[in-house]
Structures are given as structure tokens and as C-alpha cells.
């Protein structure tokens, strides 16, 4: 089972937190994080973190420190863009920098198909197959970043450098 932060000695996980942390998608992400030696624990939230604003409120951090995991289709292949919650992806800019064909946001069915996770809980890792990943350079301005952990109520802390390392991501200005 994934570790959970924010518990003091003597506190116990609620049944809801146990259910979230025992979710197969969260367990898969936790396994990858452990394999990659990521030390930050997965946190099971009582409230939803489907949006950057919800996640920032739950973590008491700046919205820009939330790493949104957005799946795009690029030349009929999945592309994961980890972008700061403070702004939107400029699709034309990313497309120019990639030097490839058409780039567009994927629908919910495609996201689930390629990640095994639902929109609002897509983690940077833990997908059935490796997904090419771009990491927004704006995230470098935050000492701590929060990313989804495979469930809309689960997050984990990380850093910009760690995100690049665990995803084999390419740093890029995306806004």
C-alpha cells in the first residue's frame, strides 16, 4: 500500500483514504514511484483534486505548483504534457517546437485507454506503456510540485528535476 503523509502518531487512515490508496491505479503509481526512489508519499485527500485549483487548495500551495497531466494526440500517438496549473498549453507553440504534425487534446476514452487512468487523476507515471512526455519549464520555479497519483483524490509531492527524471521528459516552454 502507498504511504500517506500528514498523519501524526496515533492517527489512522479513514476507510475512504484506505480505499483510495488501495485503488489499483494508485498502487501502480506507488510501485513506479518506489522503483524510481521517489521519497514523497502519496496523499489520499478527502476532497477532490480534479482541477489545479482544487489540488492547490488541498495542498495549500500556489496553483502554479500543480503539475497538470494533459494527454494530447500527436501524429496519432499519445503525448503527455505536464504543465503548470497557472496557465494553459499553447498548442500551436508546442506543435512548432516539436516540428511534427497535428496536435490536439485527447478525449476521455483515449486518455483512459493510453494511461489506464481517468481525467482528473492522471499521474505522470504508471501507464501501461511509456508515453512521450514534455515537462513545462514553468514548473522549475517551484521547489515543490504536486502531481496526481492515478486517482482524483490522490497526489504526491515531487520536484521539477524529479519529474523530468521519472518520466524521461523533455523540458519545454508550453505557454
TrEMBL record:
InterPro entries, alphabetically? Answer: YbaK/aa-tRNA-synt-asso_dom_sf (IPR036754), YbaK/aa-tRNA-synth-assoc-dom (IPR007214)
Is the keyword Aminoacyl-tRNA synthetase assigned to this protein? yes
Q: Which residues cross the membrane?
A: none
Q: Where is the YbaK/aminoacyl-tRNA synthetase-associated domain?
A: 46-165
For molecular function, the Gene Ontology terms on record are: aminoacyl-tRNA deacylase activity; aminoacyl-tRNA ligase activity
Q: Which UniProt keywords apply?
A: Aminoacyl-tRNA synthetase, Ligase
Protein name, UniProt field: YbaK/prolyl-tRNA synthetase associated protein
Amino acid at each position: 500500500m502507498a504511504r500517506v503523509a500528514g498523519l501524526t502518531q496515533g492517527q489512522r487512515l479513514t476507510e475512504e483514504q484506505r480505499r483510495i490508496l488501495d485503488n489499483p491505479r494508485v498502487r501502480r503509481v506507488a510501485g513506479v514511484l518506489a522503483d524510481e526512489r521517489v521519497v514523497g508519499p502519496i496523499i489520499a485527500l478527502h476532497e477532490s483534486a480534479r482541477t489545479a485549483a482544487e489540488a492547490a487548495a488541498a495542498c495549500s500551495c500556489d496553483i502554479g505548483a500543480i503539475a497538470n497531466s494533459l494527454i494530447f494526440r500527436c501524429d496519432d500517438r499519445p503525448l503527455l504534457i505536464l504543465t503548470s496549473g497557472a496557465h494553459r498549453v499553447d498548442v500551436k507553440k508546442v506543435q512548432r517546437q516539436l516540428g511534427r504534425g497535428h496536435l490536439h487534446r485527447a478525449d476521455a476514452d483515449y486518455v483512459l485507454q493510453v494511461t489506464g487512468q481517468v481525467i482528473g487523476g492522471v499521474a505522470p507515471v504508471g501507464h501501461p506503456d511509456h508515453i512521450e512526455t514534455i515537462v513545462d519549464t514553468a514548473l522549475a520555479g517551484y521547489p515543490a510540485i504536486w502531481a496526481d497519483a492515478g486517482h482524483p483524490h490522490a497526489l504526491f509531492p515531487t520536484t521539477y528535476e524529479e519529474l523530468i527524471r521519472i518520466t524521461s521528459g523533455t523540458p519545454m516552454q508550453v505557454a
